[in-house]
Amino acid sequence: MRSSQSLENQNQASKEDNLRLSIEKLVYGGYGLARHRDKVVLVRFSAPRELVDAEILQDKKDYAEAVVRNVVLPSSSRREAPCPYFGICGGCQLQHIDYNAQVESKESVLLETLRKIGGIENAPLEESIQSGQEFGYRVRVQFKVKNGRLGFFRWDEHEVVDIDHCPVAHPRINELIGPLRECAQHIRELQEIHVTYSPTEDKFLVKFVTPTEVDRDFLNNLKEDCLPADVVGVGDYSRLRTILNRRFWIGKEYLFMNTGRWKYRVSADSFFQVNWTLWDRFITAVSDVEPFRKGIDLYCGVGFFTIPLSERGNFIEGSDSSPSAVNDAEYNAKLNNRDNVVFMRADAYRHLKSRGGEVLDLVVVDPPRSGLEKNELELLVKNKPERIIYVSCNPSTLARDLKSLIKNGYRLEKVRLVDMFPQTYHIESVSYLRVQE
Ligand SMILES: C[S@@+](CC[C@H](N)C(=O)[O-])C[C@H]1O[C@@H](n2cnc3c(N)ncnc32)[C@H](O)[C@@H]1O
Asked: How far is the CA of 20 from the centre of ligand 1 (A)?
């Protein structure tokens, strides 16, 4: 989209088409926030406290969106982005900013979101859990495939940027890109390739996503001929909106992921936290709690938190709507010799409802980006567990839900940022709540 007339007409200081803007700070989405006259301008690829010339991409009623074309006075946190695709590829938003400044900005965004949406002034933010590495941290990657290109969508259009490596992916996943590209040439209408890597086993699982079924023998031959032996399982999938559906699977269906004392079996269709460099500290942040009698872990996945938490309590139940995750979780309880934990396949609402009248000391929730459903929140505050730990990957829905919990008698004791996704705007956090006396 072209520059807005209204904003361009007001532009006094910079070249034609560009607006000279002073960036105040970063906001959610990885944009720099500037003001022009009375309008907020959200500027891509800018850094806090710098002066830039930016091109207006969209001029909306309440704000405009722009992209940096020239840095006039750089921020002290600005650096050369290490990745040659940065600024074209839509995967990363913050590579041009020092890692410590990225974390500081995310802390500010988290606090501001809690204040603005949650009405929480000066939230008790404690020390952040930084990523162990700012690159090479991702062990799960979803590549897009389109028109012979393999990579990720551009930030500005629905076209795939062809890449030969991705610095945030684990180096071993990067080694697989060449063989995957070879496979992609042989699979008609291929849309996506999902890779999971286990640093514990040094092995991979690969999913191919296509609109029409791939011949099983053909895929088997492709696995043998094009992919290294470390790829121990491959599957053929279709996608319906956000849901992947398996047509068939060849080979091993799961990998083991170990961290600290904990061992997890993770099947191809189960969720697992993507950043292997902070698994152990993330687990400690959630599970190092005061002893409890009975607890429940909603949205438990393969038992990532439930199993370590079981050491602190008499009894804990985990639930998840994914059958694959619950099968893994049950296996993982045995694998880790935990006999005071039970898992069930249930959505969070049903699990909470079934525990209606029970006294619960601790409820852990780790919902998807949409946060807790209204009816889940209602049941939660009706049940009134003494403590709630809320793991969130979206500060906006977290703030909305905390507001409701606080209104219903909870005190926010502390919040921690967990920097699960360096170089990107994504904000993971853990909030600790306790019912007021
Ligand atoms: C962000 S993951 C967290 C998993 C786990 N806590 C972990 O750290 O590995 C969210 C999980 O919620 C599950 N899920 C999604 N919607 C759900 C619902 N309405 N009820 C229960 N589980 C749900 C997904 O299957 C997924 O395993």
From this structure: 44
Digit-coded pLDDT (tens) for 229-263: 999 999 999 999 989 999 999 999 999 999 999 99
- Best residue among 299, 319, 347, 394 to mutate for probing ligand 1's pocket (most ligand atoms within 8 Å of CB) is 299
Chain segment 23-50, per-residue pLDDT in tens: 999 999 999 999 999 899 999 999 999 9
User: Which protein residues are within 6 Å of ligand 1, measured from CB?
Assistant: 271-273, 299-301, 304-305, 320-322, 325, 347-348, 366, 368
Nearest ligand 1 atom to the CA of 270 is: 27
Indicate the SS3 state at residue 3: coil
Query: Which CATH number is correct for 140-255, 2.30.40.10, 3.40.50.12780, 2.40.50.140, 2.40.50.1070?
Result: 2.40.50.1070
Mean per-residue pLDDT of the chain? 95
With CA atoms as reference, report the closest residue to 97 among 429, 352, 419: 419
183 assigned to active site: no
Please, which pLDDT band fits residue 399 given cuts at 50, 70 and 90? very high
Alpha helix ranges (H) inside 124-241: 171-184, 216-226
**DSSP H or E run through 145:** strand 140-146
Tokens of 269: 């269709």
CA–CA dist 432, 286 (Å, integer): 9
CATH of 5-73, one of 3.40.50.10330, 2.40.50.140, 1.25.40.10, 1.10.10.1800: 2.40.50.140
CA of 379 to the centre of ligand 1 (A): 18
